[in-house]
Amino acid sequence: MNINFTLFMQAVAFFAFILFTAKFVWPPLMRAIETRQKDIADGIAAGESGRQNLSSAEKRIADMLAEAKTRSSEIIAQGEKLKSETIDAAKADLLPDLGRGRPHSRRRQGRDRAGDLPREGSAARAGRRSRRCRRREDPEARGRPQGARRPAGVDPAAALTEPRWPN
Q1: How far apart are CA 29 and CA 40, in angstroms?
Q2: Residue 96: burial class (beta carbons within 10 Å; 0-12, 13-18, 19+)
Q3: 132 inside domain
Q4: pTM to 2 decimal places
Q5: Cα distance between residue 19 and residue 131, in whole Å
Q6: What would the pLDDT profile of 32-79 be if each residue is shown by its tens digit?
Q7: Pairwise CA distance, residues 156 & 112, whole Å
Q8: 20, 63, 118, 143: which could form a disulfide with 165 (CB 3.0–4.6 Å)?
Q9: Which domain holds residue 5?
Q10: How far apart are CA 15 and CA 117, in angstroms?
Q11: Is residue 25 part of a domain?
């Protein structure tokens, strides 16, 4: 074999390989690289727009929070004003009646200011009163503590003869 012919054939094969690569392999690789670069650029742009949206949203939230604070302070001020007006009106209504004893008589009756609803706690007081009355009338209950009950097997008729509770 001739060395010149071998070198020439290697050069021809290398040139054919370069043509094949440039024609069939290189374009798809370049398209993939370009699409990847485009996707990266789109992601960076989306990140920047997201940052801008976040900063504008934070500004809107700060504005809304400031508005809510001012609104709440206005509402609290209105409530305080209404409270003081109501208290002043109630005092003005009660001061002329104080000498006549009108509010005190309503309290003794167990009624509220309107006069038609029972006051809170009157049912509990009535229950205590009825228990006290029953204790006074029941000779068996005189010697035992207030919350104690009659044990089973004790005859109420026998308790009339013995005024004390058996220990």
Answers
A1: 17
A2: exposed
A3: no
A4: 0.38
A5: 114
A6: 999 999 999 999 999 999 999 999 999 999 999 999 999 999 999 999
A7: 42
A8: 143
A9: 1-97
A10: 110
A11: yes
